[in-house]
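Q: Can someone sanity-check these two? First one:
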Amino acid sequence: MNVVITGSSGFVGQNLTPFLLERGFSVSPLSLRGDWPEKLPERYDAIIHLAGKAHDTKNTTAPEEYFRVNTDLTIKLFDFFLKSKARDFVYFSSVKAVADSVSGVLDESVIPDPRTPYGQSKRKAEEYLQTKLLPEGKRLFILRPCMIHGPGNKGNLNLLYKVVSKGVPWPLGSFENARSFLSIDNLLFVIRTLLHHSELPGGVYNLADDDSLSTNEVIKIIAETKGKKPRIWRIPSPVIQWVARLGGKFKLPLDPERLKKLTENYVVDNTKIKRVLNIHNFPVSVTEGLRNTLESFSQNK
């Protein structure tokens, strides 16, 4: 099977490409810069569309840039797919195409209401893809992953790791939350299974590990991997929120956006994709996946 992958240089693409090659797939990276239609291989069976403009937490990206990359390029690529002989189009959207914050549990029945240009641009692409009539024999998968992590990934997990490694007390212990994560191993498992089994139905699927964790639990797991005792301070949340507002004004590490990322509730339901794959649990537990990522941080110091 020949698979075209856009965004192959990104975190997911760097993991997906060798994963598929080791399992007998042929992989053709595709850059969407310049006159990319001419770069498509003569024959391919699936397109995995990873390329996109990531959410800029510092809000320095112009809103139209999200729509140019996440919406317009996706539409153009999907139109090429519809005319091709390829069977599958796998679009990597995001849970942020549905909701920026979650009350309860996010499943596929929730009516999308994204509030940021990033989420809106992803949602607009989803809407276009879903309005097009698929020719017989073609499948469309719209995957909505939550926060993906794994070896080589940077972001808030890396920040937490550095805080604990330096013995700095975690000052946000008063915030009790629950968050879903997605191990890169479980993500790769899903993609391979969907491509390998032509009988599985296309559709919209949330992707998340089986269980959620609080940030305090993540801190404890990090401390365990470092052989340290977790140091969690439960400073009153109003004090922390005041400090974050100051951080926003004076460009400090803790600002309102980062505080939200570290302490918000965001639980994602993965029942639908597991039902389609006919499995009870993903191969890697949330704790095991997290430990794999944390160990990679230690090796790459």
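And here is the second, same format, sequence then tokens:
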Amino acid sequence: MKPALQIFALEDIPLVEPEDTLHKLLIDALEKKGLQPLSGDVLVIAQKIVSKSEGRYVYLNEVEPSAQAFELEKKTGKPAALVQVILDQTEEVLRVRGELMIVRHKLGYIHANAGVDQSNIESSPDNPRVLLLPENPQQSAVELREKLSTHYGCSVSVVINDSAGRPWRNGITGFALASAGFSAVVDKCGSADLFSRPMQVTQIAVADELASAASLVMGQADESVPAVLLRGAALEPEFENNIPLIRDYNFDLFK
């Protein structure tokens, strides 16, 4: 029998505030759902609640825009302070079209507006605030995995997911900012296909596929499902020579 992937939504997570102990909130939500994680399960967690727990807020009234920010304000219509926050998270501005800024984040991601977010965030009109990506998503994933695995006494994997658009395709999809506990990319090069031909270039972005599957349940608006438990995924263990999710910039054909 082929394995079946099960997805369990964790709805009972309160609005996360800075300094909240995120792994305890996740444990409480699992208990309310009557779920006991098993070895091989994956907890997919929205980037937003990780960032909120880490206090990754910036208040726009406290930002001093640069000359470049004022110039991009004219092109994008975004407030210069918001543009400056985006620039502060950016290694390189790749494209500007209308309000959209496509940048290479300092963490390596190609992202709209450097992942700086204003949706589903409580904010005062007098001093609006925005939310940044976690400072070190990989470290956050590893620490959450260690705490959850210790609590449950089994190997629980973690994916921190976000959403983004893709070249040549409409719509956004979930993708993994970071993962811990399994090989994020599985190399099938050299494996035989149905007709015994060796595959040449096939690498499977397992962490991204799990993030995308979870996003179908988590939603993008007011669904209030910031975490899901996945069960039944066929995962390979982590090794020192794991393939990273982000392709080396020197091999990017579209830069």
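A (reply): Looked at the second one. The longest helix spans residues 137-152. The two ends are 43 Å apart (CA to CA).
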